[in-house]
Amino acid sequence: MATTSPYTDDPAAEFARRTDPHRRELLAYCYRMLGSLHEAEDLVQDTLLRAWRAFDRYDARRASVRTWLYRIATNVCLTALDTRTRRPLPSGLGAPDEDPLTPLEYAPEVPWLQPVPDAWLADPGQVVAARGTLRLAWVAAVQYLTARQRAVLILRDVLDCSAAETAALLDTTPAAVNSALQRARARLADTGVTETRVTEEAADRLVVDRYAAAFEKADIGALTALLAHDAILEMPPVRTWFTGRDRYAGFMTWVFAANGTDWRVLPTAANGQPAMAAYVRRAADDPAGHRLHTLQVFDVADGRITRNTVFQAPADLTAFHLPETLPPFP
């Protein structure tokens, strides 16, 4: 079949011109499917490599470049998921711990859900602006679905593809798509995530800023006052997790006792949620100042923090390009 791709003297430049506008939304799509930023990056690269190899056969009369790329990306993701297990958060692996002083149970062998920096996905004119479907809780819930159910749910409910469009991308029928979508929505509801909640970003940030100020002062009372009654604290790669304001506060009391009370915080954002990087200075004479300790990603509702997901694995922090140290307060 003759191609309608308007090749110029520089086909690589033409390919980049046509595909570059879709990179970020493809990354968001692959991340929603896999729950791993690093794997999503690899799959986007694989998608673009396959697209480049087939570019001379691309026919604009049959599909837009965006649809063509999503078809390739969907196949790449489905193939990858054949050999992957779901990426959970600690709250998805068992009951919470009752004692905030219980020894922490590290599980580095678990393929934990990873955070993604907002800066990698922010593109107001495109579907990546659907912040609700990038939230950690939503992506974790999607991990319970089969690979094809994930694809159907994301294509239909996030990207607003029609049943016919989704069927074409998955080489199936609209009836099969509708059936898979019904099962996916029901399974998602079973996890407790029934809808995507897009919050008031500025209001949420203000709550987290107040939390950060209390955190820097190691002020347990002020921290506790900002927590919802049933607030969740989880810390991959640690299996141990807590729910309830008192247990959360009890664990934070231990954190400050074990690490000291000299902290600094940098605001950031992840998964469409307010976040902060926490730095600790354990020794007053440490010439490096405050050292990077954790990335904390918050859910906020009705002016209270409902969940804090704390990441500490180096692989989870690298993408945020956070400084390793901060100087002490002047």
Number of strands: 7
* Weakly predicted, low-confidence segments: 1-5, 124-129
What structural class should be given to the helix and strand makeup?
Answer: alpha+beta
Number of helices: 13
Description:
By secondary structure, this protein is an alpha+beta fold. Helices cover 44% and strands 16% of the residues. The protein is built from 13 helices and 7 strands. It has helices at 11-19, 23-34, 37-53, 65-81, 118-121, 136-142, 147-158, 163-170, 174-190, 201-216, 220-225, 245-259, 314-317; strands at residues 227-235, 238-243, 263-270, 273-280, 290-301, 304-311, 325-326. Strands 1, 2, 3, 4, 5, 6 and 7 form a 7-stranded mixed sheet that branches. A hairpin with a 2-residue loop joins strand 3 (263-270) and strand 4. Helix 2 packs across helix 3 (37-53) and helix 3 (37-53) packs across helix 4. The radius of gyration is 22 Å and the shape is globular. The termini are far apart. Mean pLDDT is 90; it is low at 1-5 and 124-129.
What key phrases describe this protein's structure?
16% strand; disordered N terminus; globular; seven-stranded mixed β-sheet; alpha+beta; 44% helix; 330 residues
